[in-house]
Structure formats: C-alpha cells, structure tokens
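Quick one - first record:
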Amino acid sequence: MRKLLTIVFIFQAFLAFSQKIVWTENFKLNWSHFRSPQNTMKTDTTVVSYSSCGLKYTAYKDKTYNRLLIKIDATFDPSKSWKSPSKTKNLKINHEQGHFDIAELYARKLRKEFKENVKTEKDYQFKFKLIYQMLYGEFLDYQNYYDKITKRGTDTAKQNELEAEIKGQLKKLEAYRN
C-alpha cells in the first residue's frame, strides 16, 4: 500500500510540475512559475530568464450541431521556463509576461482566422493548418522582435512602448478571447 501511495504521489507531482498554464485575463506570471532547473539558452550567457510560451490547438466535432470546432490556447510551460535566481531576485517580471501576452495575441489571431475561414472539415484540412503555420511563424518572429527591441526588457522605454502596443492589439481582438 505504501508503494502504491508513493507512486501516486510521484505521478501527481509530475503532473503538477509539467502542466502548461493557459493564458487568462486575470492570471499573471511570477518567478515561482519558472521551474526548469537548466538554462535552455546555454549558448547565450546574457539571458537571465526564458519563458516557454506557445500555441496549442485541439480540433473536435460538435456532435450536437454537427460542426467542427477548434480550441486554441496560449500556453506557458513552467517545466521548460527558466530563470537565474540571483539575477531575477529584484527584477520585474513584466518582460516575461509580455511573452505570454504575445502568445495570447496570436491565439486570438488564430481564432479570428478560424472563425472567418474554416467552415468545414475540408477547410480545416486545407486551410487551417496553413493558416496555423503562417501565424506561428509570425508569432516566433514577433517574440524575437520583442526581445531585440526591448533588449530583453532592459530598455525600459521600449519595454513600456511594446507592452502598450501588445495590450492595444489584445483589446482590438477582444472578440476572439477564450
């Protein structure tokens, strides 16, 4: 019995550690969410933190109305997100939150494209995957642009400017939030 409880506890801890966080309006990142013990950006010693943000979608058939639905989420993966504890001790987390917000921005763009262009399963097969690939490429480019322009959050003026820009874009696409 003790072995079984130990296995269940380890499995639950693994699930809690590895679960991705889905973006919501009221949720804000904090440094405790960065749980990777290793710097995934080892080649760049100037990096003090890394946010593993992404886009996830699930397609399914609504049997009641016989239509295709796609759930699209912006995600943050704590198990792949890293920080330097000594360098982030007194550092604001707004730059990393910006990365998560950018993921939500592109999730909204995907939801908009889906609503406007994907009506059938055939559309899903031929249109959605291409749209996803195109917007995912733009998402990655914007993440890199964000880091470059803000100098990874160290240029306060540019950081504030881009934060406002991202919030404005999120507001414009508010109709497409989850």
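second record:
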Amino acid sequence: MVIYFVRHGQTAYNKNHIVQGSGIDSSLNEKGQNQASALFEKYKQVPFDLVFTSKLQRTQQTAQPFLDTQIPHIATADINEINWGVHEGKKSTPFMITAYKDLIEKWGNNDFDARLEEGESANELQTRLNRFLDQLKSRPEKTILVFTHGRTLRCLMCLIEGKHLREMENYQHHNTGVFIVNYEANKFEVVKKNDISHLNHLT
C-alpha cells in the first residue's frame, strides 16, 4: 500500500494567523483553492483507490478535484485537527503565544495529558490517530489519499516513524504539503516529507 498524506490548502484563518483547530470549520481562500488545483494537476495520474478526509470542510474542499473523478471517499473525525480549546477562532495574542509555548514545552517534557483550556491533549490526539492507522492498515486498497491538518500530520508522522511524541515539532508542514508513505509487511516507511514542488509556479 502507498499512502499520500496531505495538509489542506490555505484558509483565511491561516493567512491571518487565527487559530483554527477542530472547532473551526473554515473554507479555503482563493490561494488555498489554487493550491488544491496545483496539487491535483501534479497527482491526477496517480491511480488512487480511496480518499480519506477529516470531517472539516477545508480538507474536503482540498480533496474536491480528486473526488470529482468519482474516487470513493470516507470522511472521519479521527483525522480532524487537534482541538485548541478557548484559543480557537482568535488571533494570537502575547498571552496565547505564551500559553501555546508552555504547552509545547510540557509535551517536550513528556506531559502528554497537558492541554490548552477546554482543548485536546496530545494523548487524546494520539488515541484517535492510532485508531485511524489501524483502520488504514486493514484497508484492501493499494493507493490511498488522505487529507488532514498540520498538528494531526505532525502526530501521525511520529506514530508512523515510531518516534516519541515529543518529536512532533521536528516535522514541518505547509498547506498542501505531501507526505508519501509505503506500508508493507506491517511496516511504514516515509519516502517523501512535506513536498510542495507542485506549488513552484504559484506566487
């Protein structure tokens, strides 16, 4: 099996540095739609058997060009973005930035139950992503396309590569960045990380 993991295209929230998370169901902006189109142009010849998206429309809109070709589609909340609690829908302030940095520091010190107020912990994110990976492993399809979110991708890559969750910050992600993963004999191998070569012609 070959799995292509993709972060959604840009939204106005991304552009304006407003926190999204799982509680904000934002749409792609014009740049995000152009990114989605460029992604499709590069990968439209890949014989995808199945498309997964999160339940949030920014992933489904990024996937839409592929879905328009009648590839089967499953939407699952297991790959939604992490819930950032009371920070969602707000532009970053010095207080919020400090709270976020403190959270990342706690995760770096193995406190994976730490969370922002009313938010989700790294352990909770990991639990639902492990559930998704178990589902993925059981699929009969050979080539699968997965549209998800930035923090979710960081956690997924740790799980796929057998890294500790405190290493999440080592994984970079860009809107419509592509991670390609081979799965064979119950082992994952990441062969490409955050590829954005399809965006080279966009300004």
